[in-house]
Write a structure and sequence with these properties.
Strand order of the largest sheet: 3-4-8
Strand content: 5-15%
Oligomer: single chain
Length: about 190
């Protein structure tokens, strides 16, 4: 009987070692996925053998189970933003990280205030370049403060950059740990 070890194995840095590790893990979980060095570039690439539909479904299930905490964090973030009236239609996952996507400038300002930025006078339109840059800076600082130093990559896309579309502040992906801190700040520290 194949007993799954509860102790993580050290990560192997050589390709042959990585192939052995991946083959061992596949056997441990009962996944018939043959792994071998690539015939074209055996020093740097591997080939995953031909698999049937059941193996594809099993691999998909294993990956989703491995991403369970990430999916839960994304869903909690969506609920927290919705609870505060912030629409983030592009919220999703990118390379194992959580991306807020594009936010309207008003939504970005609202998020900044929820994360602790002081209210700003509403005498000017936020969609203009200097005001949107100010919103961007306010959100970046509030995000960093609320998440304990987390970094949020932001870029203002004016209407002319979006071919007449609504100006937005585009956000880069954040790691899951930082996203959890953001959720906590919105759930427990958000201001109305």
């Amino acid at each position: 009987m194949n007993v799954l070890s509860l102790q993580p194995r050290p990560i192997t840095t050589s390709l042959p070692g990585a192939i052995r590790d991946l083959n061992a893990v596949c056997r441990e979980v009962g996944l018939p996925l043959p792994v071998s060095p690539s015939t074209e570039d055996p020093a740097r690439r591997i080939e995953l053998g031909t698999v049937d539909e059941d193996t594809v479904l099993q691999l998909t299930d294993l990956l989703r189970r491995g991403m369970k905490r990430t999916y839960k964090t994304r869903d909690r973030l969506r609920r927290a933003l919705n609870a505060h009236g912030i629409d983030a239609p592009d919220l999703g996952l990118e390379d194992g990280e959580i991306a807020l996507g594009n936010l309207t400038v008003a939504a970005a300002e609202r998020l900044a205030q929820l994360l602790g930025a002081p209210p700003r006078p509403v005498t000017t339109a936020l969609d203009d370049w200097p005001e949107a840059q100010e919103v961007l800076a306010r959100l970046q600082k509030a995000f960093r403060d609320a998440t304990g130093g987390g970094f949020l990559d932001l870029l203002f896309l004016s209407d002319c950059l979006r071919c007449g579309g609504e100006p937005v502040i585009s956000t880069g992906p954040i790691c899951v740990k930082t996203a959890r801190r953001l959720v906590s700040a919105l759930e427990y520290g958000g201001q109305q």
